[in-house]
Amino acid sequence: MASQSTTNPPRFSIPDSIRYLFREQRLLFVLVGISIAALISNVVFLPDSSPHISDHDHDHDSFHVAESTSLPRRRAYELHADHHNLGGRIPLGLKAKSMRVLVTGGSGFVGSHLVDRLMARGDTVIVVDNFFTGRKDNLLHHLRNPRFELIRHDVVEPILLEVDQIYHLACPASPVHYKYNPFAAFIWVMFGILDGYRDHKTNVVGTLNMLGLAKRINARFLLTSTSEVYGDPLEHPQVETYWGNVNPIGVRSCYDEGKRVAETLTMDYHRGLNIEVRIARIFNTYGPRMCLDDGRVVSNFVAQALRKEPMTVYGDGKQTRSFQYVSDLVEGLMRLMEGEHVGPFNLGNPGEFTMLELAKVVQDTIDPTAKIEFRPNTEDDPHKRKPDITRAMELLGWQPVVPLREGLPLMVSDFRQRIFGDAKEGDSTTSTFSSV
Ligand SMILES: NC(=O)c1ccc[n+]([C@@H]2O[C@H](COP(=O)([O-])OP(=O)(O)OC[C@H]3O[C@@H](n4cnc5c(N)ncnc54)[C@H](O)[C@@H]3O)[C@@H](O)[C@H]2O)c1
After folding, report:
1. 343-359: string of b/e by CB count within 10 Å (b at 16+)?
2. Whose CA is nearest to atom 42 of ligand 1?
3. Which parts pass through the membrane (predicted)?
4. Which of 169, 190, 238, 283 to mutate to test the pocket of ligand 1 (most atoms within 8 A of CB)?
């Protein structure tokens, strides 16, 4: 029985434990151990907060598009990103994360070039697109990048994302598409009276959804408006202070008036809700990745000349437009977003060409024997279009640097490749030029 008393476990006593801890600096070792464990778990083991769709999401050889249709469900994922997502927390000692940028309409012509530049800058980019006119091919080269995420989503539905900046480009921009579906074009850029008014938020689609998102997450919002807000202008060149001459009931008005309302909403959110906004009024832009048959004059002429079809000139061909290479526009958009000024800013190339002059440049670039065919002009086709870019030059330090005769061959090479599958002339799908 005596031996029993010697084998009894020592009784637990709090004062003894505290004394034990303080002896020989054990407490210091415990605290250092806890800190190291916390740091390691933050960096390595913190689970990805993005929901996963299924196991085959990790098949990186096929094209993946996440889908999202309603708030707050967000079925999206980042390729290869699982072990890099820190759930928004930045562990001590690690450098701050890069800018998180949302580009709506990012798989389209302008959007995909913008994404290229943002990715090259080191940003984390989320593209939201319903692929109405955009092409997944335009973004294929980013799919394996952990900083890139693509979500199939229609902006008429709300979506909740965490970003610092929103470039709002989503819109069926070409005449073929917005005339094909004018109501959709209209509601995509302005508020829709779908289920009746309840409050400011529920009455909105498209632009208003994105403004609502900007407000909710305190992001800076940039609207890509258009020179079409000037309609058939009575002032030439067009200055931002000009209010325009738009037919509110014409075939083009779904686009023109839609964008005008989008500008109004953007300014209302800015004035009324203190949202940081930027407005760009984009003039005719061309370059690789444009839709082949979208009814825009440059893409029409180039595709027709390549296919040995006559170039269709509407009216007498004396109406003028100015043509800006896409890399110039992207530079302007980024300067506007990063700058201090709300705008609106005209972003376009002031070089003015008649349609016949443009046809001549296309002939010189592709085929000197290409024919021209005249057709009756379309309704409300503006007679003149030329941006006054003084404001952008002074306040953004921006001006276009790529002349038409240099930019057009890059577009032709891309079109040739897409029409004939001919890669001999090299891949011109990247923006080769940059602006100052
Ligand atoms: N390219 C130009 O010359 C020009 C001129 C003036 C203004 N803009 C403006 O610039 C922006 C981009 O134009 P673009 O030339 O790249 O056109 P685009 O048609 O190539 O790109 C538009 C993109 O928006 C997407 N989209 C359309 N509706 C959507 C919706 N409801 N939800 C999600 N995505 C949607 C399309 O799929 C496409 O990827 C547009 O807002 C357009 O109005 C362009």
Report:
1. bbbbbbbbebbbbeebb
2. 173
3. 27-46
4. 169
* Span 333-371, pLDDT tens digits: 999 999 999 999 999 999 989 999 999 999 999 999 999
Report the distance separating Cα 192 and Cα 1, nearest Å.
90
Cα(424)–Cα(409) distance, rounded to whole angstroms? 14
Distance in angstroms (rounded) separating the CA atoms of residues 79 and 59: 9
Pairwise CA distance, residues 218 & 163, whole Å: 9
Which amino acid appears at position 280 of this protein?
Answer: A
What separation in Å is there between the alpha carbon of 104 and the centre of ligand 1?
9
What is the mean predicted confidence (pLDDT) over 227-241?
Answer: 92
Q: How far apart are CA 290 and CA 110, in angstroms?
A: 8
pTM over 0.85? The answer is: no
- Phi, psi for residue 35 in degrees, rounded to 5: -60, -45
Chain segment 62-82, per-residue pLDDT in tens? 334 444 433 333 333 333 333
74 residue type, one letter: R
Q: Which mutation among 67, 133, 254 tests ligand 1's pocket best, with the greatest number of atoms within 8 A of CB?
A: 133
State the angle between helix axes of 207-217 and 253-273 in degrees (0 to 180), rounded to the nearest 10: 20
Residue from 373, 401, 409, 217 nearest 298 by CA: 409
- Atom 1 of ligand 1, residue of closest alpha carbon: 285
Q: What are the C-alpha distances in Å from 35 to residues 31, 87, 208, 288, 397? A: 6, 19, 45, 52, 48
